Amino acid sequence: MKPEAGDILGTAADQLMGQIAPNLNVHYLQGSLAVQALLLKFAAREYERGADIRFAENADMRALFAELAPNIGDAGLRAQLMAAAATKDTSLAISALNAANAELRRLLIALQIHIEDTGDSAAQKRIWEALNTMASRRVVSLF
Amino acid sequence: MSDALSLALAEYLAKKLQARDLTVHDLARIPGGASRETYRFIARYGGRERRLILRRDPTASLIETERSTEYRAYEAFHKLGLPVPEPIALELGVSALERPFFVMAEVENAFVGSILAPDPYGAHRDKIGQQFWSNLGRIAGADPDALGLADFEGAKDVGNCWRHELARWEKVIDEDEGEPEPIARAAIRWLKRNPPPPAQKIVVVHGDYRSGNFLYDLNGDIRAILDWEMAHLGDPLEDLGWALDPLWAHHDPSRPAGTIPRAEAIALWEQASELKADPAALFWWEIFASVKGCAIWISAAHEYATHRNDDPVNAFSGWYCLAYHNKVLAERLGALA
């Protein structure tokens, strides 16, 4: 079995933190290395979950647009929402998922501003539920 | 550490302190945040030894701040008797050490509580908490004119504090945002639609008063309040909202700053400041604190991603802290929807 990138990053983090940092006699470098090791830990976990987080987030935003678009009075915005809802992620490369994510987020911001202006409290609640789910997925654990 | 820096520092301090025999020893960089390079060193002169700290501008600064602000705050609050390091020298020119810097006394035998630690203050938690919240009240209660800091950057009008600070941090997000941030943007709109009442008075706001930004000793005494570089004039509730933020609570928001229960913390602040923490106004400043956090973390991520400042703390802030504050805002504002 060959090691995955996440395993390599995680092992490197453990070695930096447990073996190399304690043997540095420069306090500043010791602290800096500990942070670098923590970042490697984050990166190790992101290797496993990064594409999944973005794929799920993009799917959630498309579903939200499809759900709310029929009640949007602004014809231009409604058309944008329906068009975005019909798109799909065709690559699981992080860069491709990020590019689609940025476009969807821009549209989500426009949708939320519109909903706030119309005072549709049910739609506002629905958007905040989606934002909460997005934020929860992206939380990074220290442990 | 570079001999050239030691020699240049010694030459500067010899002139500044009128001590021709001054020499610099054991200059070593220490952790001190991503926005300033921090060094510890020993100055020997006149038959004595002083342990000092050098804070020098980095080649690229995370948050652009007026360089003299931190030093002047140390001067003013040191005179007031608050625990801050004794300021020694401020140099705004670039001829001595290539970049502006200041020198202050080292606070010896004292520690910083890591924001990552679950219980950094241990048995001294309550004692440190009482000092922490009372000291913040003393800062809020101090008169900027009497401190000599009335010319600090910030709002001059009690009705404008919130607008001034919100505009400042929204601009940072506008300039440094790497990807659209729907939660921070929604929070900014909420803050604009629901402004707080006017400030009770204009005070000096520390700007980054929190767990992890003070030194304490083995007796549980707070020895130094640090990192005043974002100090400005504004609403006293701004610092309280920031200090109460769950990011600094060591994973237990019921004990803000990892210290004492929230209600006790606010009561101590009110007692020391002789001000009131109106719950609705404080809620606004707590939402603002998380937005300000987002702005700082977005800026940190930008610095790292563009290689202007590759301190790993910037990557950590732009990843862990930003995700954390997005979650805090989504929970708090989602509950109001």
Number of domains of chain B: 2
The average pLDDT of chain A is 95
| Largest interface between protein chains, with number of residues from each side | A-B, 35 and 30 residues
Helix content of chain B: 40-55%
Assembly type: heterodimer
CATH fold-level assignment of the largest domain in chain B: Aminoglycoside 3'-phosphotransferase, Chain: A, domain 2
- Give the tally of β-strands of chain B: 10
**CA-atom Rg of chain B in angstroms:** 20 Å
Largest sheet of chain B: 5 strands, antiparallel
Principal-axes shape call of chain B: globular
Radius of gyration of chain A: 21 Å
Topology:
The complex is a heterodimer of chains A (143) and B (337).
Chain A: H1 5-20, H2 27-68, H3 75-85, H4 94-118, H5 121-138
Chain B: H1 3-16, E1 23-30, E2 37-45, E3 48-56, H2 67-80, E4 87-91, E5 101-105, E6 111-112, H3 125-141, H4 144-147, H5 161-176, H6 182-193, E7 203-205, E8 214-216, E9 222-225, E10 232-234, H7 236-243, H8 262-273, H9 279-305, H10 312-334
Antiparallel strand pairs in B: 1-2, 2-3, 3-5, 4-5, 6-8, 7-10, 8-9
Helix pairs in contact in B: 3-8, 5-9, 6-9, 6-10, 7-9, 9-10
What does this protein look like?
The complex is a heterodimer of chains A (143) and B (337). Chain A has 143 residues and is an all-alpha fold. Chain A has helices spanning 5-20, 27-68, 75-85, 94-118, 121-138. In chain A, helix 2 crosses helix 3, helix 2 crosses helix 4 and helix 3 runs antiparallel to helix 4 (94-118). The two termini of chain A are 26 Å apart. The model of chain A has no long low-confidence stretch (mean pLDDT 95). The termini of chain B are far apart. By secondary structure, chain B is an alpha+beta fold. The longest helix of chain B has 27 residues, at 279-305. In chain B, the strands form three sheets. Chain B has a five-stranded antiparallel sheet, with helices on both faces. Chain B has a three-stranded antiparallel sheet with strand order 6-8-9, with helices on one face. Chain B has ten helices and ten strands. Chain B is globular, with a radius of gyration of 20 Å. Classes of the chains: A mainly alpha (143), B alpha+beta (337).
